[in-house]
Design brief:
The protein is mostly helical. It is built from 10 helices and 2 strands. It has a single domain, classed as Endonuclease III, domain 1, CATH 1.10.340.30. The chain has a two-stranded parallel sheet. α2 packs across α3, α2 runs antiparallel to α6 and α8 packs across α9.
Length: 190
Amino acid sequence: MTERCGWCGTEPIYVDYHDTEWGVPEYDSRTLWEKLILDGFQAGLSWITILKKRDNFRAAFEGFDPNVIAGWGEPDVERLLGDAGIIRHRGKIEATIGNARAWQRIEQREGFDRFLWNYVGGTPLQNRFETLDQVPAQTPLSVQVSKDLKKDGFRFCGPTIVYAFMQATGLINDHLVTCPCHETVAKLAR
């Protein structure tokens, strides 16, 4: 019997995210950055909270264009702190601006997509977990990626956030083997 990964529940927005986006390999530099930023905003909250506010985030953050956000300053922080459609957390907002600048440095140096995909040799890691309790919250790899991101100036990217990000962007296939998406996502690996 196949069934979805149990973490997505039955709420339509969550099921759709699980079925069409989570774990699908993402190779676009800007989209990878957006997803890392949203995972940082999720810290201490549930992912469904971020999903429900994602369109508001995209509007407030100019479509998550890091080249635009890198030029922001205190007036933009204040504007965002007044936006009830997003998570109004000064530290996370300020980190997003700094993370845009860090993204620019990595993008210029080697490409943010290449920087990330090099950790898995360009091919998604294929885990074969049977139950949710087998899925780790972090791994030595997510610890290393987190450390390297921080070295490049990123914030709100601890090992647990990074592991969730790697799962979401398909660097790691953590759909349970009982989930119909496991094989679908595995076939998308380059």
